Amino acid sequence: MMMNQRNTIDLEQGWDFMQKGITKLKNILEGLPEPQFSSEDYMMLYTTIYNMCTQKPPHDYSQQLYDKYRESFQEYITLTMDVDFEEENLRSLQIEEDEGPIRPSSRIRRRIRIESEVSRPNTAQLADTPRIRIDGVSVAYRYRIRIRYAIRQQGGVSVHAKPVLKLLVSIVLPSLREKHDEFMLRELVKRWLNHKIMVRWLSRFFYYLDRYFIARRSLPPLHDVGLTCFRDQVYQELHVKARDAVISLVDQEREGEQIDRALLKNVLDIFVEIGMGQMDYYDNDFEAALLTDTAAFYSRKASNWILDDSCPDYMLKAEECLKREKDRVAHYLHSSSEVKLLEKVQHELLSVYATQLLEKEHSGCHALLRDDKVEDLSRMYRLFSKIPRGLEPVANIFKQHVTAEGSALVKHTEDAASNKKAEKRDVVGLQEQVFVRKVIELHDKFMAYVNDCFLNHTLFHKALKEAFEVFCNKGVAGSSSAELLATFCDNILKKGGSEKLSDEAIEDTLEKVVKLLAYISDKDLFAEFYRKKLARRLLFDKSANDEHERSILTKLKQQCGGQFTSKMEGMVTDLTLARENQASFEEYLSNNPNANPGIDLTVTVLTTGFWPSYKSFDLNLPAEMVKCVELFREFYQTKTKHRKLTWIYSLGTCNINGKFEPKTIELIVTTYQAAALLLFNSADRLSYQEIMTQLNLSDDDVVRLLHSLSCAKYKILNKEPSTKTVSPTDVFEFNSKFTDKMRRIKIPLPPVDEKKKVIEDVDKDRRYAIDASIVRIMKSRKVLGYQQLVMECVEQLGRMFKPDVKAIKKRIEDLITRDYLERDKDNPNLFKYLA
């Protein structure tokens, strides 16, 4: 191939030369015998275009070459795609036309099958071509055609086929194009690959045209022109057929058949690439139909599965379907289809049947929770988390289940406690301790579900919280949950408690108790009960470990805030300061020989604001104790003169020696008991009234202490009459014959039920809290309606307790009478703040 570049090249001469190169390229693509392009061939073709575009007018043929470039593709597509496409499929057919009257034989009336092995030169990956079947009945009725098998010879069509080739193209091929088979897809892929090769080579030949002429004229690039020709001539005619064939193969794969995924990938690449950077053709011509087919396919499947399968089996199938659809996207669908495709599958398999699936009687969500099917619950979460609002019904069922479990536990404990009421209170108390322990175990179990199965999703945390709030705020055996939790903590933290745990187990249990406290609405009630029990542990040296005491306060502070634990922390600090104060007192006594109390005295100085309130009586102390009190008062005044000491004798303890006839026994008693016993050093017999007068105590306290000394286990005093109750007419005398196998015994006072006082104290504190909240709100808002004031007040106080609306209304009225608020004259439901 040579071309004289020195002379002016006219259009016809130059194009004839280019046509030879284009024909050579076509032959190579079609697998015909043709030598490959050499570098010289390529340069001659490129130079020819260059010269024809750079010649002076009127011999500048840039526009004409641009048009002929397009015509080359149109001609190639028309001859190769429209004719060779069919001819390639029919090369192995020998066809004879038999003119004459149409008399279809029985053989022709049957479906005529044409099976053809198609040769595919230069396309090794497409060598395994499937056989095709063509319904030739319509052709046979109009034309009496006899079709015989023949062998293709030397790459050409049989001589007998040529006269009727046009007939086959115009009539048989429409039937072929209506088929949705793999053969058509393979041929389409082959032609598309050949076309892209031709576009690439011709773009190189015409590169100068592309670089200068097209750029100046703002025309479509040669590459785009080549692809546009394929789109207009081939794609527009065959894309529906190709789409249906692809979707058919996808459905076959969904049914478990093996398909050629590489073929589908190549076909779908055509839908993508034909858009030249845009996804419109893929989205509109293929994806939309795929999504519709997907919805229909899985709708049919789901309607059968929901009737035949259990909930776990259904979910296994649904999860596997989603996995396979993702796999399809990874192998041959475009990545942009993944979200839309999975949404279709999820909608048909999950959204449509969500309620029916979750509420299956023997295998639904309730059954999975009941039977602890952790793996199935995890799968349920994974599936339903993918659909809009899919987790809400799951969370609701979870909440119902937890509420039912907790309420059943409360009822069981109530029944057990009522059966034990005739027995000792200790047995009932043990039942309550077991109840708290079981609630902790229940919380651990369902929190594990939330963490592991439901991946810490906020919906399930909320469901768990609301469920526990339902039954954790129910009373058990006459005790509130706040009291039960405080008592449980006391048993863990005090010496000799019923809970025998290691240090690590204690820390873990305290952590769980504090978590349970989050569900208790009356946190202030818990705080007061806990403070009472903490005081007894600290004052009577019953705390097992100071570190555990500080640890739970830290946990409570993190959970409820610093204000919640400020008093408790002050109590612990007071004990540390009290020990230092006692050491100073002992040093004071050693430095002052005249200051000798005569007995060992330990005084614990407490800060009034931190500790629970206690009754303070002016007990008439025995002379032995009066001197001790005066000595400590003198010592304390040396340290500070601005603080007043109030003695709480009810919290004191004494060790006294009882000299009985058998032996001397050390008695560990309260200050009240000690004062009463010391009265008998100066009198053998004392009446009830004499004891009460000399001690200056109330009736209740005298009855308690005399009962402990005369009617309980250790009868230090004899009582007349000898009954089990104490009355004002009784007379008491020292029991000199008392004995015990122990040399040291503790005589406890009957416990006082502090529950009523704690509740009264809490109610009083709540009134103050409501008042303060109302004043804060009104001070900032100045004018506010009743409903909004109540709502804001409830919101402010909700962290500590749930205020009663009636109580808020009552406090508003009280603040009005005290001139903090006033009602609007025109609107009685509107309040104004009075500065």
Automatic annotation (TrEMBL):
<comment type="similarity">
    <text>Belongs to the cullin family.</text>
</comment>
<dbReference type="GO" id="GO:0031461">
    <property type="term" value="C:cullin-RING ubiquitin ligase complex"/>
</dbReference>
<feature type="domain" description="Cullin family profile">
    <location>
        <begin position="480"/>
        <end position="710"/>
    </location>
</feature>
<dbReference type="InterPro" id="IPR036390">
    <property type="entry name" value="WH_DNA-bd_sf"/>
</dbReference>
<dbReference type="InterPro" id="IPR019559">
    <property type="entry name" value="Cullin_neddylation_domain"/>
</dbReference>
<dbReference type="InterPro" id="IPR036388">
    <property type="entry name" value="WH-like_DNA-bd_sf"/>
</dbReference>
<dbReference type="GO" id="GO:0031625">
    <property type="term" value="F:ubiquitin protein ligase binding"/>
</dbReference>
<keyword id="KW-0833">Ubl conjugation pathway</keyword>
<dbReference type="GO" id="GO:0006511">
    <property type="term" value="P:ubiquitin-dependent protein catabolic process"/>
</dbReference>
<dbReference type="InterPro" id="IPR016158">
    <property type="entry name" value="Cullin_homology"/>
</dbReference>
<dbReference type="InterPro" id="IPR016159">
    <property type="entry name" value="Cullin_repeat-like_dom_sf"/>
</dbReference>
<protein>
    <recommendedName>
        <fullName>Cullin-1</fullName>
    </recommendedName>
</protein>
<dbReference type="InterPro" id="IPR059120">
    <property type="entry name" value="Cullin-like_AB"/>
</dbReference>
<dbReference type="InterPro" id="IPR036317">
    <property type="entry name" value="Cullin_homology_sf"/>
</dbReference>
<dbReference type="InterPro" id="IPR001373">
    <property type="entry name" value="Cullin_N"/>
</dbReference>
<dbReference type="Pfam" id="PF10557">
    <property type="entry name" value="Cullin_Nedd8"/>
</dbReference>
<keyword id="KW-0832">Ubl conjugation</keyword>
<keyword id="KW-1017">Isopeptide bond</keyword>
<dbReference type="InterPro" id="IPR016157">
    <property type="entry name" value="Cullin_CS"/>
</dbReference>
<dbReference type="GO" id="GO:0009867">
    <property type="term" value="P:jasmonic acid mediated signaling pathway"/>
</dbReference>
<dbReference type="Pfam" id="PF26557">
    <property type="entry name" value="Cullin_AB"/>
</dbReference>
<dbReference type="InterPro" id="IPR045093">
    <property type="entry name" value="Cullin"/>
</dbReference>
<dbReference type="Pfam" id="PF00888">
    <property type="entry name" value="Cullin"/>
</dbReference>
